[in-house]
Design brief:
This protein is an all-alpha fold and 257 residues long. The chain has one domain. The chain has a two-stranded antiparallel ribbon. β1 and β2 form a beta hairpin. α8 runs antiparallel to α9. It starts with a helix and ends in a 6-residue tail after the last helix.
């Protein structure tokens, strides 16, 4: 199914090129925001521009991977309103798996490319004490960071069984979480540190790994060594996501048509 969708996207090369360019501009615009901030300040939240390159690269790489693979589950309200979600229940596959494989947007690789360039630059410009633990932490941060964002997408989709037209509300936790992850968590007031550190743990996707890789102290309540707990944060998000998904699918009574 995924292979056929990839071939379909590549069949219309002009449209694919425009979509790819649009996604690239989104990634470059987000990076431009960071550059503008550091054109006016030298340090933000205890991190200089080189450290922010690493933070931006990690957060955007994790989010873009999750967005490419799972992000389209936010189309669930369209299926619910049209009543076509009922067909998913008739197929011998889990509904969530069908939604996840219903689409694969290759254009989102453009945003991934911007993130990779930023990450490589951050690793090159910062004074990093390389070792096996550093490489392992990078792999854990990227893999588990993508898992955290993917879990947030599933949480957002689960709420659509009840909200139907609440996409803007749930975007505050998905795309809003992505924006929060690309900022130093230390700049937020105390309550938001707890929210982004533990409740919606986007701090584990990039900020805490950046602190650990650069051997920097973290703010109160978010020490750098917590970066090694990123897999636990991913498990927490997915435990909530699957519980909410099961709750939502049991609540769904059909399209009524």
């Amino acid at each position: 199914m995924l292979a056929s969708r990839i071939r379909a996207q590549r069949a219309y090369r002009g449209s694919f090129a425009l979509d790819f360019l649009g996604s690239l501009l989104v990634g470059l615009t987000e990076f431009a925001e960071v550059w503008v901030v550091f054109h006016n300040v030298d340090v933000l939240g205890g991190l200089d521009f080189h450290a922010i390159l690493l933070l931006f690269g990690l957060s955007n790489l994790a989010f873009s991977l999750a967005d490419m693979v799972v992000g389209h589950v936010d189309t669930l309200p369209t299926y619910v309103r049209a009543g076509t979600l009922d067909a998913f229940y008739l197929r011998p596959q889990p509904v969530l798996a069908q939604l996840m494989t219903s689409e694969l947007q290759l254009r989102r690789l453009a945003r991934t490319g911007v993130a990779v360039v930023s990450l490589v630059a951050g690793l090159a410009y910062n004074d990093i004490s390389w070792g096996l633990d550093t490489v392992l932490l990078l792999v854990v941060a990227i893999g588990c960071g993508a898992a955290i964002f993917a879990g947030l997408f599933v949480c957002a989709a689960s709420l659509q069984f009840f909200l139907i037209n609440g996409a803007e509300f749930t975007n505050a936790f998905t795309y809003g979480g992505s924006y929060a992850a690309s900022q130093p968590t230390s700049i937020f007031p105390g309550p938001l540190k707890l929210v982004f550190g533990y409740l919606v743990p986007v701090a584990f996707t990039a900020y805490l790994p950046t602190l650990a890789i650069l051997d920097l102290p973290g703010p109160a309540g978010l020490p750098g060594w917590l970066a090694w707990c990123t897999p636990l944060a991913a498990l927490w998000v997915w435990a909530v996501a699957l519980t909410m998904w099961r709750w939502g699918t049991r609540h769904y009574q059909g399209g009524g048509g």
